[in-house]
């Protein structure tokens, strides 16, 4: 049974049942939507408590009525023994006291009923408001998390794009350096071939010069021999 069902069975305000359960730390056995459901044993315990309280209140009411009747009887006896002025004073006092007590009790019961209903409604309203605020905060946190995630992804994409541009620039520079190196190697080969050709030409020149010098020396020796014979 739920708190409302127990209260309807006892014909009392459900806030009283809720207070008793909270004071005695009685835990619900299950939940149905937002309603707490209690087992038969716990419901029996709650019902027995309020039945006992109701019986005590009934007994107290009967005892109070008996005392009041006896008090009224005693008051009548006292009034007969007193003077007229005292009788009038006592009657007015009793009438005033009776009206005041009844009025206070009625107002107290009315206020208690209205107060319980008002408090329960305020509690339900506050609970709904709190749930709405929790949902709102949860949605805000979810949106903020998504925005932060999107911003981080955009930043990472931008950084990766910049890195790609830098890599492309480095690749272009590397390609230019490779082309320059190839040209330098080609120029070096051409220079090496030119040097080899120059060395070959120089060697041939030296050899030719040596042959010419040797032929001239042979001719000089021949003329020397000729002139020596004539003399």
Shape: rod-shaped
Using only C-alpha atoms, the radius of gyration works out to 62 Å
Strand content: under 5%
Low-confidence stretches: none
How many runs of DSSP E, i.e. beta strands? 2
* Helix coverage percent: over 70%
Mean of the pLDDT scores? 76
Describe what this molecule looks like in 3D.
- The protein has about 230 residues and is mainly α.
- It has two domains: about 1-80, Orthogonal Bundle (Multidrug-efflux Transporter Regulator, Chain: A, Domain 2); about 85-205.
- It contains four helices and two strands.
- A two-stranded antiparallel ribbon has the order 1-2.
- A hairpin with a 2-residue loop joins strand 1 and strand 2 (about 35).
- Helix 1 (about 5-10) packs across helix 2 (about 15-25).
- The longest helix has about 150 residues, at about 85-230.
- The chain starts with a helix and ends with a helix.
- The model has no long low-confidence stretch (mean pLDDT about 75).
Fold blueprint:
Elements: H1 3-10, H2 14-23, E1 30-32, E2 35-37, H3 40-81, H4 84-230
Antiparallel strand pairs: 1-2
Keywords:
single chain; 231 residues; mainly alpha; Multidrug-efflux Transporter Regulator, Chain: A, Domain 2; two-stranded antiparallel sheet; 2 strands; 90% helix; rod-shaped
Summarize the entry for a quick read.
The protein is mostly helical.
